[in-house]
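Appendix B, Record 12. Input sequence as logged:
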Amino acid sequence: MKRLRYIFQLIVFFSLFSNMRTFASDLFPQLPLVIYSEAFSYNKPFQFVPSGWMGDIHALLAYDNWRQGPHSGDSCMKFVYDMTKPWIHGWAGVCWQYPANNWGNIDGGVNLSGATRVTFWAKGETGEEYIFFKVGGNYGIFSDSTEIIYGPVQLTKEWNKYSIALQGEDLSHIGCGFGWIADKTEQVAEKLIFYLDDMKIE
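Logged structural output:
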């Protein structure tokens, strides 16, 4: 009898866990889903946040309330990758994750099925910045269902709109809604400086 009770308890536990997993990975946000429009403006409860710093993070600086020449509104984001500092990886980047610090070890991905693209505005400090942009790519127990790499994109000194196509991709579980990566060997200047604004999933 005790053995049967124990087995029953295990069945109930794993059933509840399975239901929790299904719920967590079936979160459907309303589209368009804003990633960034203004500093300190959040689109709860499905807010992708720039918590996923990668590569030579010691050489990275980020400003999420930069007010000099945004594409729209009062603010934009500014990133600086200082390649004069001692480096380990030779590249750096940032992922916007849901929830924060989700590298595929948290069952918190969002179901973006139905989305067709990620759009964003970007410009460089010199117009010689080469950057890869991405969606998905978390690998772990709860890996993202896809990874899309866009680029390398050469930015200009003026704001330009870019679009990452999502058609035909499995978007059922996405923990990294947007991200960028810069390779040290592809840059001309010693410091990579660029700006992002008005990022959203449509």
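Confidence is low (pLDDT under 50) at residues 1-25.
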